[in-house]
Write a structure and sequence with these properties.
heterodimer, A: 306 residues, mainly alpha, MetI-like fold, B: 289 residues, 2 domains
Chain lengths: 306, 289
């Protein structure tokens, strides 16, 4: 299995629990007496819960507490203001567009990387993780430099009257960049565990090459592809560093919601910032639940097809 | 790209029917993938390096030797030196509790550990301000104690720690799950204490996962921008990390200097990617799957 990166480990956790973990513990309990034969449960659990609460949970709850103090009418007037609404709309639609592009090209890259041998394959495989490893600010200035009117690509685009940098299109480009590894690294392990014999068998039975892909390969990949899409979407919604350089940040046109949070904070409007953050957090939590469900589905699906 | 086409004989998986059409399809798909990777991943890297060296190597070195750039590098290393060990201890404790014991709400705990990955970095910074800021929950008491967290180094460390919480834990959990607990039970039977077992049996067994998690955690901690940008206050030479320094130079139109500092981060990212692919190969060699 040729994959690396952060994402697919997430998949492995889900699989470990779904496919082996639960059964492992259950079998253990039935054959050997107590499950807690090893020491350190109290200490490990204590450290985990205290740390998680102090660093993550209590601070996150501050957002909701601050928002709740606003009251319904004031909350609606913050969220309902045209500038906030337009930034939320832009954030979600740009993330959606980028996640769709990532799903398409991520599938292509995963396919090429697992099904073909060619010179440079290993380099290409390693490069896929680059958007994880590269600081987002660096990605932002690099993409902006490339796409600005005098940049390597931007100058060529300008001769065709196309403008990408400092428009919403630039935001989509930046989000596509940061979201790409999520799709590739979720689809890749599933594709490599799906033996080419499946397609070959379909073709022997009279399916065309296209039918073999759409009826045999694609359905098997779908849960993983959707997981990758959702992960890339979640990342795109929250992304800040790579976007602010390329967006131009014009209110009502190319101002994303995270930037508006920063702006409100700089004006010491804590409740306003917290209100926008709450909307984004609710969206993130919903996506996280969807991703968990999708990953459980992927794990089940994978077991069935193996 | 032509070399890829010539080497097609080496072939990956051959389709049974109509080889010429399959071959044509193969070339087309590989070419499309290469074009995409070239435009999206290689060009930005090349652009950073070319822009950094545009005014010659001497200008490049001058930009890096700037006292503010060095201060930013130092602060970045300090942040990494605090955030990574903290998350490392947390990761080991969480992985131990999750993989070695059975308890209710285990899946919920795993989801909570992953939570910071789906929270916008800006919100990670925001929550620090809401708790520790001048008008935040602890603001007045911190002021009374004359401790500054926001717009100072502790805030930067906290925000970075928040963002990098999951990295070590999520690498360790699957590895420790796969390792099983037979060896640890054996060590205890042979009279080892809990700490001896952890140090001599558990950790050596999962060292690859641990190192891998630390690398990912370090990379993210070095490069974190959104969260840190909210809490930093952008005080030159004091609360500027490397990514923030890049932003500051860029916004001041000092492009060569900005790209020179950025090139350091690019080199670090390339190093991470290379180490990652080496680890991946070792992992593949180690497991038959």
């Amino acid at each position: 299995m040729s994959h690396s990166g952060i994402l697919d480990r997430n998949l492995t956790i889900a699989q470990a629990f779904d496919a082996e973990g639960g059964i492992y513990f259950r079998q253990r309990r039935s054959t050997r007496a107590p499950a807690r034969t090893l020491p350190g449960f109290g200490l490990a659990m204590g450290v985990t819960l205290v740390y998680l609460s102090l660093i993550v949970l209590i601070p996150l709850s501050a957002t909701f507490v601050m928002t709740a103090q606003l009251g319904v009418r004031e909350l609606l007037s913050v969220i309902g203001s045209p500038r906030v609404l337009s930034s939320l709309r832009l954030t979600f639609s740009a993330a959606l567009a980028a996640a769709l592009i990532d799903a398409l090209f991520g599938l292509l890259l995963a396919w090429v990387l697992t099904r073909y041998a060619f010179p440079g394959r290993r380099v290409m495989n390693a490069l896929i993780d680059l958007p994880f490893a590269l600081p987002t600010a660096v990605a932002g200035i690099a993409l902006t430099g490339l796409l600005a009117g005098n940049g390597w690509i931007g100058a060529w685009l300008a001769t065709h009257d196309l403008k990408v940098a400092f428009t919403p299109l630039g935001i989509v480009v930046a989000l596509t960049f940061v979201g790409l590894p999520f799709v590739v690294r979720t689809v890749q392990p599933v594709l490599s565990s799906l033996a080419p014999e499946f397609e070959e068998a379909a073709q022997t039975l009279g399916a065309s090459r296209l039918q073999a892909f759409t009826r045999v390969v694609f359905p098997a990949l779908l849960p993983a592809l959707l997981t990758g899409f959702a992960l890339s979407l979640a990342r795109g919604i929250g992304e800040y560093g790579s976007v602010i350089f390329i967006a131009g940040n014009i209110p009502m046109v190319s101002e994303i919601a995270p930037l508006l949070i920063v702006t409100k904070l700089e004006q010491y409007d804590y409740p306003g910032a917290a209100a926008i953050a709450s909307v984004m957090l609710v969206a993130s939590f919903a996506l996280l639940l969807a991703i968990n469900a999708l990953q459980a589905w992927t794990a089940r699906h994978r077991r069935d097809t193996q | 790209m032509s070399s890829a086409v010539h080497a097609s004989v080496a072939g990956g998986v051959a389709w049974p029917a109509s080889p010429s059409r399959a071959e044509w399809e193969r070339r087309l798909l590989i070419a499309a993938a290469m074009a995409f990777v070239g435009a999206f991943l290689v060009l930005p890297l090349a652009f950073v390096l070319a822009s950094a060296l545009r005014n010659g190597f001497a200008a490049y070195v001058t930009a890096l030797a700037d006292p503010d750039a060095l201060a930013a590098l130092r602060l970045t290393l300090v942040v990494v030196a605090v955030a990574v060990p903290c998350n490392c201890v947390f990761g080991i404790a969480a992985a131990w509790a999750i993989t070695r014991f059975d308890f209710r709400g285990k899946n919920a705990l795993v989801t909570l550990i992953d939570l910071p990955l789906s929270v916008s970095p800006v919100i990670a910074g925001l929550v620090c301000v809401l708790v520790f800021g001048q008008r935040g929950w602890l603001g007045p008491s911190l002021e009374a104690l004359d401790v500054q967290v926001i717009f100072a180094v502790p805030g930067i460390v906290l925000a970075t720690t928040f963002v990098t919480v999951p990295f070590v834990a999520r690498e360790l959990i699957p590895v420790m799950q796969a390792q099983g607990r037979d060896q640890e039970e054996a060590a205890l039977l042979l009279g080892a204490s809990g700490w001896q077992m952890l140090r001599r049996v558990t950790l050596p067994g999962v060292r690859h996962g641990l190192v891998y998690g630390v690398i990912l955690c370090t990379a993210r901690a070095m490069g974190e921008f959104g969260a840190v940008s909210v809490v930093s206050g952008h005080i030159r030479g004091v609360t500027d990390t490397l990514p923030l320094h890049v932003e500051m130079l860029y916004n001041e139109y000092q492009f060569t200097a900005a790209f020179a500092v950025a090139s350091l981060l690019v080199l670090a990212a390339l190093l991470v990617v290379v180490v990652q692919s080496l680890f991946d190969r070792r992992r593949r060699a180690a497991s038959p799957a």
